[in-house]
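Sorry to interrupt, but I need a hand with the structure work. Go ahead and set the record down below:
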Amino acid sequence: MSEFSFANLTPDLILDAIESIGIYPESGLLALNSYENRVYQFRADDNCRYVVKFYRPQRWSDKQIQEEHQFSLSLIEAEVPVVAPIQRDGQTLFEYQGYRFTLFPSVGGRQFEMDNLDQLEMLGRYIGRLHSVAGSQTFTHRPTINTQDYLERAREAILSSQLLSTYMETPFLTILDQLIEKTQNAYYDTAQIRLHGDCHAGNILWSNDKLLLVDLDDCRQGPAIQDLWMMLNGDRQEKAMQLDTMLCGYEEFHSFDQRQLGLIEPLRAMRMVHYMGWLATRWQDPAFPRNFSWFATDKYWEQQVLALKEQYAALNEPALKLIP
C-alpha cells in the first residue's frame, strides 16, 4: 500500500470498517482537523458519539500503535485525564481492507487558556501525574527525541522535496546549518521517560471544570521538559512565571530536574526544523498542498530565515531560570 493512499478511504469503506467491529453509525461522518491521519466523528445507534481514527499507512507499526494505546490505558487506570481508545473484545487496534483504525469516545470542551495561571498550575499537576506513571516503564517500540530525526533527517526531507527555490536556497541553508550545529552542541542526553510528546494548547481541553489531555499519537521517549515548554509564551519574565506556576503543580506528583531548563531552546529549535521537514515529507499527500499552499512560496522561506535567525540568537542566551 502506498504511503499516501488515503484517496481509497471512501465514506462507504469507513462505514463498513466501523460496522465490522459492531458499531453502527446513524449520523453522517464529520471530518475533524487532522492531517497526519484521517479522523471522523459520528453518532451511533446506541446514541453515543464516537471518533474513529484511520492511521496513515506505513507511519507507525502495529507494535508502536499498540504501545501508545497501552500507555493511554495505563494513564486512565491511574486516573490521569486523557482520552484513551475504546476496547472491543479486548482489542483497541482494528484492520479493514488494509487500513488500521481505532475508536475513541467523542469529547468536547473549550481550548486551554495559556495565559490562565490557574489552568497552568492544574496542567502542571496533570503532567506530573502523567510522568509519574510514565516513569514506571519505558517504550520499547516508540521513537526517542533525538537530533538526528528532528534536525538532520528533516534537513534531508526539505532538500529532497525540491520546494526550496534556487533564490532562497543559499540564505536558508546557511542559517539552517548554523542552527543545526548550534542545537546539536546545546542538546544533551538526560533522563528519558515516556511522554505525551505533543503537549500544546490544541491538545488540551477544558471541560466540566477539569483539563483533558488528548491525542497521544506522537508519544515517545524524551526529557520531561518536552511536555512543559510548549506552554511558555511572552517575554523571559512571563515564561519564568508560567514555568514556575506549572512546576508548583507538577512537583506535587513528580520531581523535576532543573538542569533540563537548558533544553528548552534546543527543543524549540528542533521542533521548528522538524515541522518544516514534516511538511516536506508529506507533500505527496494531496491534503498538504491544498491546506499548506504557502509552504511552496519564497515568502514562506524568507520568513523562516528570519525565524531561524531569532532562534539562533535565543540559543545564545542563558537558560531560563525559575523565579527565586
Summary: The chain has a mean pLDDT of 94. The first helix runs from residue 11 to 19.
